[in-house]
Write a structure and sequence with these properties.
Blueprint: E1 8-13, H1 26-42, E2 47-52, H2 54-57, H3 62-67, E3 70-74, H4 84-88, H5 112-115, E4 119-124, H6 127-140, E5 144-148, H7 157-170, E6 173-175, H8 177-185, H9 193-200
Parallel strand pairs: 1-2, 1-4, 2-3, 4-5, 5-6
Helix pairs in contact: 1-9, 6-7
């Protein structure tokens, strides 16, 4: 049960300018989120962001936002309620064929399956609200969900830890930034090893 960069996507939930000062250990949480995003970009892992009610809470941290391919503005606490799943799971490619095509049970799986990255590495704020609800919905949508605990935060430590307990009970894997980095690399011979090491040491 190790992460594979070629099967992963990174989702960063609501690291917003007006929210982060209130987050317990917010400076370290944001630093780990930036680190994750930089490592993901080095290893060709897609990076997505979300922002909760940005007109009230502001945009995500600018450096983090710049590392995301796209950022979803949302009003629901769960980003999955507002279309995140469609970003994470590309539309199936149409099947070719004609009237003489094989019956469905004899056909090979669609080529689109190979394009799908079903492992979602997720982190964000607040851990017990938007991060929790998004992660639970992604589990419900049959993604494999890995929560990066040291890049998640809430206003209180108790709320953050309660979120982790609930997520673990629901089937999410709990990991740290360094676990993700070294599992995505897989070997010290990876071409990006020294660059990644420079970010986490």
């Amino acid at each position: 049960m190790l992460l594979d960069a070629t099967e992963s996507q990174l989702v960063l939930v609501d690291y917003q300018e007006r929210l982060m000062p209130a987050i317990f250990e917010g400076t370290a949480v944001l630093a780990n989120a930036r680190r994750l995003a930089e490592i993901a970009r080095m290893l060709d892992v897609p990076v997505w962001g979300t922002e909760q009610n940005p007109s009230r809470l502001g945009a995500n941290d600018a450096a983090l936002r710049a590392l995301c391919q796209k950022t979803l503005a949302k009003m629901h606490f769960s980003a999955a309620e507002e279309g995140l799943g469609e970003w994470l799971r590309p539309p199936a490619k149409p099947q070719g064929g004609n009237a003489r095509s094989l019956p469905k049970h004899l056909q090979k799986p669609a080529a689109a399956q190979g394009d799908e990255r079903g492992t979602i590495v997720i982190a964000g704020c607040e851990a017990h609200v938007c991060l929790l609800q998004t992660a639970l919905d992604l589990l419900e949508d049959e993604f494999d969900v890995w929560v990066v605990t040291d890049a998640c935060g809430s206003r209180t430590e108790r709320n953050r830890d309660a979120a982790f307990d609930r997520l673990a009970g629901a089937g999410a894997e709990l990991v740290t930034t360094e676990m993700v980095a070294f599992e995505w690399l897989g070997t010290c011979e990876h071409p990006a090893f020294k660059d990644v090491l420079g970010l986490i040491k």
